[in-house]
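Hello, quick one for you while I still have it in my head. I'm working through a protein record and want to make sense of it properly. Would you mind checking whether the tokens look sensible for this chain? I owe you a coffee for this, so here goes:
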Amino acid sequence: MRSGRRPVVLLLLCGLALFAVVQWRAGANEKAAEAAYPPSGQFVDIDGTRIHMHVSGAGPDVVLIHGASGSLRDATFRLAGLLEKDFRVIAMDRPGMGWSDRPPGYGGIWNVAPEPPALQAQLLQKAADTAGVTNPVVVGHSYGGAVALAWALERPEDTAALVLLAAASNPWEGDLGALYRINSSRIGSAFVIPLITAFAPRSTVEDTVSSIFEPQEVPDGYLEHFGPQMTLRRGTMRANAQQVNGLRPFIVEMSRQYNTLKMPVEIVHGTEDTIVPLHVHSEPLDSQIDSAVLTRLEGVGHMPQHVRTEEVLAAIGRAAARAGLR
């Protein structure tokens, strides 16, 4: 071997070794997370996509759809247990999140196309069909609000009401930041995401969750129940980055159809939400849907279901009553 090639070969070998170590450590962290937070519900196969949902309670159906970087564990921390006294509650992992798979044709390191909210809604609807869900109140938080709106647009005659919590519903200006752009790219998917999965410290994870709850504090026991380690799995991070970074074009198209929705719609949004700002999303939505009622929560950030749970329960109750379910 020529001496001039040796540094290049050594550098290549070191790079491959580092890549192998990163992948090994990432895989070990994923196995530990999955062992600590196993499935809490049931699986159904929908058109080749495994969907995970948690069903509890009895009464009129309420479907809960979580937001970005989430899972149904966000709903089962507090909200589902309170609702199941009066409703049958179906909490669902969106495709690619929690224990639900991404549909065929989406995912992988190099395929960075996002699943449209309409496709996610269709998969969740078919999963709900297997549980006998009919005419539900559909509750969506944050990104899950976009999926809830897509649900209603897909099945307007079989959606009793919508409850939208800090929901992403209207186009916004600018981009979502460098990390979303990088992680939703092929390079980020292949190299940056495994590094985060392998080496992200717990303190960074806790700080990220705290920033989502600001200006309120994270409730006691939330982190232990929710399991943020599950959101750091490579496949989950890819799905989340691609879905969130690719959401805006779908929102643009969906927003043109909101005026066709006739079912009762309850909107709950905090005035201090800096992640999905009230004035960008819910205030325009309130005028786009004739049947919408907007409740502004003064001083509240992005997580009203946890920090103002009674107001959220009241909104769900109003939606059910307006739909004639109670």
Residues 6-36 form the longest helix (31 residues).
